[in-house]
Write a structure and sequence with these properties.
This protein is α/β, with parallel strands linked by helices. It has a single domain, classed as TIM Barrel (Alpha-Beta Barrel), CATH 3.20.20.70. About 40% of the residues lie in helices and about 15% in strands. Helix 1 runs parallel beside helix 9. The chain is globular, with a radius of gyration of 17 Å. The structure holds phosphoenolpyruvate.
């Protein structure tokens, strides 16, 4: 079953998230679509949402703590309030814009995997590494698995080349397949592709062998587009 995930980043309010989830939930129910859907709203938009069972609302980020003195962060006490048991870890914006190190990512991963959370773990190389070639790309990606237990049961991986995220530049199907095949040879977990996935390219991307779904930023913010993506992925 194809996995489709929506990363809202710093977009949508609690009100518009509620409307969005109602729209997507009704669409899935009416069409009896069965994909596994993950939606990551902002932390301020987490709430007790009623959705169809195949929609899972997760956190874009949280600190590895129950509670404490970590200004600006949230922990499991805040996630438990809304029964959130899914988290995105290692997203490129957290690595490259917010400065998370592999060490801090690994300790977050360890904390949330010990609690049994569903983890979508992101890896992907910046442009200069891609330009240096496939060997360098794979070396870079393997380093992003340092300290990460890839045998963890509740793990989904997302390959998201940094140069393709939010840029409108999608990786070619051969770029995707080179990296996905290499990862799948070593790690037997669902593997999503992310990076400028849109309504008009989702079909081609999901048809690449070893692509089990997509993690979508920009194109997911519009509920109508996201519904269309769900429809296309169900009809494959
Ligand atoms: C993302 O944020 O994970 C992402 C893939 O963004 P976009 O679809 O906008 O490239």
């Amino acid at each position: 079953m194809t996995i489709i995930a929506a990363n809202f980043k710093t977009n949508h309010t609690r009100k518009s998230t509620k409307e969005y989830l109602e729209t997507v939930s009704t669409f899935i129910e009416d069409n009896k679509f069965e994909n596994e859907i993950y939606i990551f709203p902002t932390a301020t938009s987490l709430d007790e949402y009623k959705t169809v069972p195949n929609i899972n609302v997760g956190a874009q980020n949280a600190y590895p703590t129950q509670k404490g003195s970590f200004t600006g962060e949230i922990g499991t006490e805040q996630l438990d309030e809304f029964d959130v048991k899914t988290i995105l870890i290692g997203h490129s914006e957290r690595r490259h814009v917010l400065g998370e190190t592999q060490k801090s990512i690994a300790s977050k991963y360890e904390y949330y995997s010990n609690l049994g959370y569903k983890i979508i773990y992101c890896i992907g190389e910046p442009l200069e590494v891609k330009e240096a070639g496939l060997d360098q790309t794979l070396t870079y990606v393997w380093e992003q698995f340092e300290g990460i237990d890839v045998n963890y049961d509740n793990l989904i991986l997302a390959y998201e080349p940094v140069w393709a995220i939010g840029t409108g530049v999608t990786a070619t199907t051969s770029d995707i397949s080179n990296v996905h095949n290499a990862i799948k040879e070593k790690i037997d977990k669902p593997l999503l592709y992310g990076g400028s996935v849109k309504v008009n390219n989702i079909k081609e991307i999901l048809n690449v062998p070893n692509v089990d779904g997509a993690l979508i930023g920009t194109a997911s913010w519009n509920a109508v587009d996201f519904c269309e993506i769900i429809k296309i992925s169900n009809n494959l």
